[in-house]
Amino acid sequence: MSVLLTKACSELETKDLKPIEKFILTTLCFKANINNEAYCCIDKLVIATGACKTTIESALKVLRDKKYLSYTGKTAPKSKRIPVYKIDLIPPKIGVIKNTPNTQKPVNNTPKNWGTDRL
Asked: What is the pTM of this model?
């Protein structure tokens, strides 16, 4: 499960995708591995999204045409029919800290006799 990829997909602001296409992309992002690769059979996407089979097939085609998905040439483990897709989204960087010099000294506000007044 790729949380960063799912978050990037949910925050994707694009007008070139229909809501069902974005939902299917989000579902695949949720199933993606660390290499941004995901696979899911059509029947499981029907269950996960509530869309019909033809809608999912056409949405996958649109996502491939618009370069959100690409074939890896691999198939799912234990299957020779389910393709593995590469999801072409760049997740946002989290925890990026700018290298700015810290000119302030840390302040110790702890009282000098803290903890010793109870002895």
From this structure: 0.69
Digit-coded pLDDT (tens) for 33-72: 888 889 888 999 999 999 999 999 999 999 999 889 998 8
Distance CA 31, CA 20 (A): 17
Cα separation, 102 vs 97, in Å, equals 12
What would the pLDDT profile of 88-99 be if each residue is shown by its tens digit? 876 444 444 444
Measured CA to CA, the distance from residue 63 to residue 116 in angstroms comes to: 66
C-alpha 30: how far from its chain's center?
Answer: 6
Does residue 62 contact residue 35 with C-beta atoms inside 8 Å?
Answer: no
Distance from C-alpha of 110 to C-alpha of 61, rounded to nearest angstrom: 63
Out of 1.20.1250.20, 2.60.40.10, 1.10.10.10, 1.20.1740.10, which CATH number does the structure's domain 3-87 have? Answer: 1.10.10.10
Return the domain boundaries, the chain: 3-87
